[in-house]
Amino acid sequence: MKTAASESLFEKAKLLIPGGVNSPVRAFKAVGGSPLFIQKAKGAYLWDVDGNRYIDYIGSWGPIILGHADTSVVKAVKRQLEKGSSYGAPTELEVQLAEEVCRAFPSIEKVRFVSSGTEAVMGAVRAARGFTGRKKIIKFDGCYHGHADHLLVKAGSGAATLGQPDSAGVPEEFVSHTLIARYNDLASVEALFQKIPGQIAAVLIEPIVGNMGVILPRGNFLSRLRDLCHRQKALLIFDEVMTGFRVAYGGVQELYGIQPDLTCLGKIIGGGFPVGAYGGKKEIMSVVAPEGPVYQAGTLSGNPVAMVAGLVTLQILKKKNPYPELNKRTQKLTQGLEEAARTSAVSVKLGRAGSMFTLFFADKEIIDADSARSCDTKRFANFFQGMLREGIYWPPAQFEAAFLSVEHSERDVERTIGAAKNVLAVLH
Ligand code: PLP
């Protein structure tokens, strides 16, 4: 495997960009080695600047559910580009995408588009505080909701990987209204409500977690959380930036039949372009400016290129309903991975929700941040490097989700299982 061109670009990048990357996890710090610089992508494959081809299981961290450079998305984007890339004025495309999002998520009656998942969650939390007149929010240890100051507390994803759950540069006062509960542990949420009654504006959660690796809600955790929020007159915010249109067309809330008060979306709804969205009941969303007093704005919000890419993506997903097939193929892959690990006597646990999954290098079930911390991250790093040499591009950190796209073929899956067998066999 040649890597000279990537290595040389990384050296140059480090002189110009902090750590050589524009988002920390891309730097391969958790797994060692030099990151690959990507030249192009098509379908399920990535090519780096040294000409190596990889089966891609990152999918841009979730958005690329149709595979890279989907022909219909590319066509629609090109057509839009010829008409202009941004107007700073409303377009019909925003109305169309809003209509589709509201149809897919019955809990969303009104939606506001922004430019990232981070912004979506910031907006939702601000709206929740504006609506309830309360200050405090509850989040869960290990859940990641973007890099807003007040949410960088006990955060998952890159923050967990780098051992920086509490970022420098965030004054204590900024996070003093953020309370931490334990995922899958309702009693930990109840205790916070009891401690400061009447002050909690919202409970914010990744209903299926992607950012400690994939962790599912156990038993009736989510429905009891829904009831608790109702009783306490606090809003329930589902952060479905990763799971929306991924685990099912209508996200976790469709799968579990639970209606949150507010929902955050991103990733897939931008079809590979920068988009986020937050929405919910009319009366809550009506606090958002210019209808109400909660300010939130954006130069590129509702950007027509991103809107059309998202719209075409959703239309294809709706028409083709690839979810059963994606589910089946992902299950085949994860079963193959588990079997390969068993054969090699390597302890693994699997977290999977539809086409997103994590292979945890652990002895016991992963149900929350504490159990996730028990993973053997060194062993994961060796697995990652081995898979890379086999031409498989895995998320470069243990606490991340891997994603399949509709373009991942039966053959890709078989090749991946074969590679895993080779790598796991020598992992000791
Ligand atoms: N919320 C969740 C659940 C996410 O997974 C992410 C990003 O991975 C975000 C929020 C932040 O989104 P973005 O990176 O687009 O700002």
Give descriptors for this structure.
about 425 residues; seven-stranded mixed sheet; four-stranded mixed sheet; globular; binds pyridoxal-5'-phosphate
Q: What does this molecule look like?
A:
- This protein is of the alpha/beta class.
- The model is unreliable at 161-165 (pLDDT under 50).
- The two termini are 23 Å apart.
- Helix 5 (157-161) links the parallel strand 5 (136-140) and strand 6.
- It has a 7-stranded mixed sheet with strand order 4-10-9-8-7-5-6, with helices on both faces. A 4-stranded mixed sheet has the order 1-2-3-13.
- It contains 14 helices and 14 strands.
- Bound molecules: pyridoxal-5'-phosphate.
- The site of pyridoxal-5'-phosphate has 17 residues, from helix 4.
Number of alpha- plus pi-helical segments:
14
What's the helical proportion of residues?
A: 25-40%
* Beta-strand content estimate: 5-15%
Are there runs of 5+ residues with pLDDT below 50, and where?
A: 161-165
Sheet with most strands: 7 strands, mixed
Which structural class fits the helix and strand makeup? Answer: alpha/beta
Gross geometry: globular
Query: Termini, distance in Å?
Result: 23 Å
Bound small molecules, by name, code or SMILES, are: pyridoxal-5'-phosphate
> Could you tell me the number of beta strands?
14
Helices and strands, in order, run as HEEEHHEHEHEHEHEHEEHHHEEHHEEH
Averaged pLDDT, please? 96
